[in-house]
Amino acid sequence: MTSSGADYREMIKGDKLVLRGLKFHGYHGVKPEERKLGQKFLIDVDAWMDLRPAGNSDRLSDTISYTAIYSIVRDVVEGAPHNLLESVAELIASTVLSKFQQVSAVRVQVGKPHVAVLGPIDYLGVEIVRHRTFVVQS
Question: How wide is the angle at C-alpha 99 spanned by C-alphas 28 and 135, nearest 5°?
Fold first, then answer.
């Protein structure tokens, strides 16, 4: 099942929790030196959900704590190695959607600032967006 472009545009206009510039050391990559030495990873996460209940009540219990999402990202990035950034991003997204039913969609960006390329870069990486309808419940 897919959503139309119009559905996606409407979703991204809604409320969201925003986590930017999370930095962790991990051991992801295909090259042996990436697995042995590790490297820094930069993560951004957007989690779409209705923030009106928390805005009206001013209670943390009516929203999701940023630290809960931060902990998921930290556990994935500092956890078991993955070959591809796509896999790291997918695990973060699926964990957020599985753990928090209030989240209707999540965007995860994973960047590597230290990549052997011929030229200056801020980082190279991947960005994925996952909507709740795409999550397979196990």
Answer: 75
31 is catalytic: no
Q: Which DSSP letter does residue 124 get?
A: E
Predicted local confidence at residue 115, as pLDDT: 87
Count of Cβ atoms closer than 10 Å to residue 40 Cβ:
14
Q: What is the mean pLDDT of the segment spanning 105-129?
A: 94
Would you say the pTM of this structure is higher than 0.70? yes
- Alpha-carbon 131 to chain mean position: 12
Contact yes or no for 27/14 (Cβ under 8 A): no
Enter the tokens of residue 72: 């998921």
Please tell me the distance from the alpha carbon of residue 63 to that of residue 85, in angstroms, as a whole number: 29
Query: Which residue among the candidates 16, 23, 99, 112 is catalytic per the annotation?
Result: 112
